[in-house]
Design goal:
A 6-stranded antiparallel sheet has the order 3-8-4-5-6-7. By secondary structure, the chain is α+β, with helices and mostly antiparallel strands. It is built from 5 helices and 8 strands; from the N terminus they run αααββααββββββ. The protein has a domain of about 140 residues: endopeptidase domain like (from Nostoc punctiforme) (endopeptidase fold (from Nostoc punctiforme), Alpha-Beta Complex), CATH 3.90.1720.
Length: about 280
Amino acid sequence: MSHTAQIPSHRKPRSNASKLSLRAGVAGGVLSTIAVAGAAAPAFADPVTQTMEMPTLTSGLSASLTESAEATRQAALDLELQAQEDAAAAKAEVAAKKAKAEADRKAEAKEKAEAKERADAAKERASREAPRTSLSANSSAADSSVGASSNSSSSSSATGSAATVVAFLKAQVGDAYVMGGTGPNSWDCSGLVQAAFRTVGVDLPRVSQDQSTAGTQVGTSNLQIGDILYWGGAGSAYHTGVYIGDGQYLDAANPSKGVVIQDLSGYPADGAVRVL
């Protein structure tokens, strides 16, 4: 084979190189087109991205604003509640101070009234002590005058005690009548009689019914000083007093009269007992 005959086969590679170049050019063109398209793509994608994210941003902002408003409202409620509590506490404090001042005023007034009452009672007791002392000093003379009217030595001894009983009773004139009272400033009828005879060592029963049978029954026409008078039946009497002579008796009469001296003719007794 001649040298020139080898030329065609020697040129084949060039043909392939041209094809490769063409293919490369085409490929480069395609890639360039893709590159251009890729470069241009973000310009169209941006609006889509922004449009999709806007609701998310708006929702978060709305929630934040809602939370802020709720916190503000709660803070306002808390302040209002605190103000109400402070006002109520101040009002309660003022009321407590007024109540305490009123209680102090009443307590002071009560203390003054009690002090005055005690002073009056002490003055009254002092005024009563003087006649009692005087009566005790003159008891011997009274015993002698009463004993002169007695019929025996035994009755003379009884009249001495009777004078003491009468002296005690007269010292209580003006005291109040109080049901169940046993002194020293208020009495009922049997409480006064019992206390009077206790001064001479005679222990009488407490109630009128029993006092009406405590001694020797005597007629109301034969009375002696110191005899116990009763109204009602013996053993069922409802009132008692003591005969003090000269047609008079002394008793704790009733709430309107208190302890008084009365005429027997105005309220005759139903019976009498003698214990001295």
